[in-house]
Amino acid sequence: MHSHWEGKHAMGKPGKPNVQGKSNVQGKRDSQGKPDKRAKGSSGQGLLWLFGVILVVQGFGSAVTEAGWDTSFGVAGLLRAAHMPEWVTLLVGFVGVALLGVAARRHYAERRAGRRP
Q1: Which residues are registered as beta bridge partners of 65?
Q2: Confidence of residue 17 (pLDDT cuts 50, 70, 90)
Q3: Three-state secondary structure of 20-75
């Protein structure tokens, strides 16, 4: 007779070995059945794009609104409260441009690598 614990957990939890010692979680596979290496770095790639866009909008958008309407928002408002110089908001925008450049470079490098046999 099995104990209550064995009967309840015989199927195993996702990611843990089950009774036969095989994992219940299958990773993403490419067309040949091999583990997909692109799936692992895709969330990091997406974060580069996201943070790049956020910093570009916050940096350059803040600089434009301050110049045109004499008001600040987001990062610029926080930087003004910290008594930082005005050029720091532009620096934030350029950091965003750099992140977008890195993301684009990685994206196109992965596409080129995928085309080669």
Answers
A1: none
A2: low
A3: CCCECCCCCECCCCCECHHHHHHHHHHHHHHHHHHHHHHHHHHHHHHHHHCCCCHH
> Where are the chain's structural domains?
53-117
> To 10 degrees, the CA torsion angle through 54, 57, 62, 67?
170
Alpha-carbon span 32 to 41, nearest angstrom: 19
Q: Which amino acid is at 66?
A: E
CB 92 within 8 A of CB 77: no
Question: Angle formed by the axes of helices 37-69 and 74-81, to 10°?
Answer: 60
- Give the whole-angstrom CA distance, residue 31 versus residue 79: 49
CB atoms within 10 A of CB 58: 22
DSSP H or E stretch at residue 108: helix 87-115
Q: Name, in order, each residue with C-beta under 8 angstroms of 97's C-beta and a sequence gap of 6 or more.
A: 52, 56
Please tell me the pTM assigned to this model.
0.58
